[in-house]
Design a protein that fits this description.
This protein is α+β, with helices and mostly antiparallel strands and about 210 residues long. It folds into two domains: about 80 residues, no CATH class; about 100 residues, no CATH class. The chain contains six helices and eleven strands. The protein has a six-stranded mixed β-sheet. Strands 8-9-10 form a three-stranded antiparallel β-sheet. A two-stranded parallel ribbon has the order 4-7. A hairpin with a 2-residue loop joins strand 1 and strand 2. Helix 1 packs across helix 4.
């Protein structure tokens, strides 16, 4: 299992009984890149990940490997994606008082931060590139850059299946911390399954 965490390791991941995809570790610090590639069986031949659309790169926990990972895919089957790991991420801003007093979500807004070469700086310690992002003024930054949060297996699986089935590629957590983002992207809550979150963005007061 430890070998899965080495930089440039490509693994096959199982999303459903008849849907597999590929992911690549892009550093030695748990950042994994996922791609717009799907197959009915865990079989790959002459795949060049430099020519496949990268969907997102995020930090993943052990559970992603344990629950979704199937095997290391050898170089004879897949060529690596050579893009460097992402450095720019969004660090959510804590909203403890709003959550406690006004029934707002516990994070509200975020700062675009630079985690440095190899993305080894913790989000809370990283230098801020842009502060207080909001959908009105920073829509493209919010859509383009991922959150510093650690991802679990269900989040990864659901996001990839949403891309495959509905061609929507976005971290749903962003809709909780950036009020108005759904509307700016011309989407609605009915476009998504919120079971993993237990609640919907509209369940929280938007001040």
């Amino acid at each position: 299992m430890r070998s899965f965490w080495k930089k440039d390791t490509v693994i096959s991941i199982k999303l459903t009984e008849d849907c597999y995809s590929l992911a690549q570790m892009v550093n030695d610090n748990a950042q994994m890149r996922f791609f717009s590639i799907f197959n009915q069986i865990d079989s790959w031949e002459n795949i060049d990940l430099d020519t496949i659309e990268p969907l997102f790169s995020v930090f993943v926990g052990n559970v992603v490997i344990q629950k979704l990972g199937q095997r290391r895919v050898p170089p004879k089957e897949v060529n690596l994606n050579k893009s460097p790991c992402n450095q720019l991420f969004i660090e959510p801003i804590s909203n403890a008082e709003g959550y406690r007093v006004r029934n707002e979500f516990w994070d509200k807004g975020g700062n675009l931060v630079d985690l440095g070469v190899g993305a080894r700086i913790a989000g809370c310690d990283a230098p801020i590139v842009k502060s207080n992002l909001n959908p009105e003024n920073n829509l493209q930054d919010i859509i383009k850059h991922e959150l510093t949060n650690m991802w679990g297996d269900n989040n990864i699986k659901n996001r990839l299946l949403m891309k495959k089935e509905r061609d929507i590629n976005i971290d749903q957590y962003k809709f909780f911390i950036f009020p108005g983002l759904l509307e700016k992207m011309k989407l609605s809550e009915s476009d998504f399954d919120w079971a993993d979150f237990k609640r919907k963005p509209s369940d929280f007061f938007i001040g």
